[in-house]
What we know:
With about 300 residues, the protein is α/β, with parallel strands linked by helices. The protein has helices spanning about 15-20, 40-55, 70-75, 85-90, 100-105, 110-120, 140-150, 175-180, 235-240, 255-260, 280-295; strands spanning about 10, 25, 30-35, 60-65, 90-95, 125-130, 155-165, 180-190, 195-205, 210-220, 220-225, 250, 265. The strands form 3 sheets. It has a 9-stranded mixed sheet with strand order 5-4-6-7-3-8-9-10-11. The model has no long low-confidence stretch (mean pLDDT about 85).
Amino acid sequence: xxxxxxxxxxxxxxxxxxxxxxxxxxxxxxVLVEGAVGTGKTTLGVEFVYRGxxxxxxxxxxxxxxxxxxxxxxxxxxxGWDLPALERDGRVRIIFTTREVFRQEIQQADSLLLEQAAKxxxxxxxxxxxxxxxxxxxxxxxxxxVFVEGLQREDLTPVLALEAAALRDGSALPEESIxxxxxxxxxxxxxxxxxxxxxxxxxxxxxxxxxxHSFRIVDGKGIEAYRRVQAPRVAARDRAAAFDTTKRASxxxxxxxxxxxxxxxxxxxTVVAGISGVGKSVxxxxxxxxxxxxxxxxxxxxL
Length: 303
């Protein structure tokens, strides 16, 4: 993928998450955060707006349909986030409405909400619960597409929370195909403990760290994500992967090379089987020693 500059990316400001996202999300990407009840969708979305307003000079809007602003402010205070202070400074606005009213408002040419967003120079918006944005006229996919088009009339990077079942049949949700970045949150019981994890299902136009990454929701701080440990992809590994499968590597055992017609094929897997004491480890050591003699690096694992 092409390399985006820092100005092209929106940093979430959430501890560890930007590392998973390889620096952030492309500006104006539609970010869908999905997960079952209690997985942390609201916390992630609110922190995204809070960090933007308090750290990156990017004012934001929080749209609520079910949780009252008073409860949201109370819960945010538990993480040390002073939303009322940011509201007084005109850097955050909290809107409590219904899905139907919000959907109609965002699609109007003279939208008061978008006018307010322009006035406060908002760059981020979090919508807490986009399920049920459909209409009697439009299919869910088309209705969601119309909805996000309305959000992008201003220079906003939206984070949209979507409640999804913890286990699905693997089929994609309509919202997932339209969203640019999809973050899946999960909460599982493992050995009498609840374990939270997140996974970037996709991020259009930008690279990201694949796999499942653990995270915590910490009192007085917020979300802390921990990137999965993995070996970096370096040029040497890329070159090593481009081996010639027609060439052979010497076994290092006199006479065995003749038996196997010159050695083991590059890139092949060879199993040496036998009972204890027949010489399996010695044969492996001779193979590695021959590689070292030829200037080749080797790795030996003992279990």
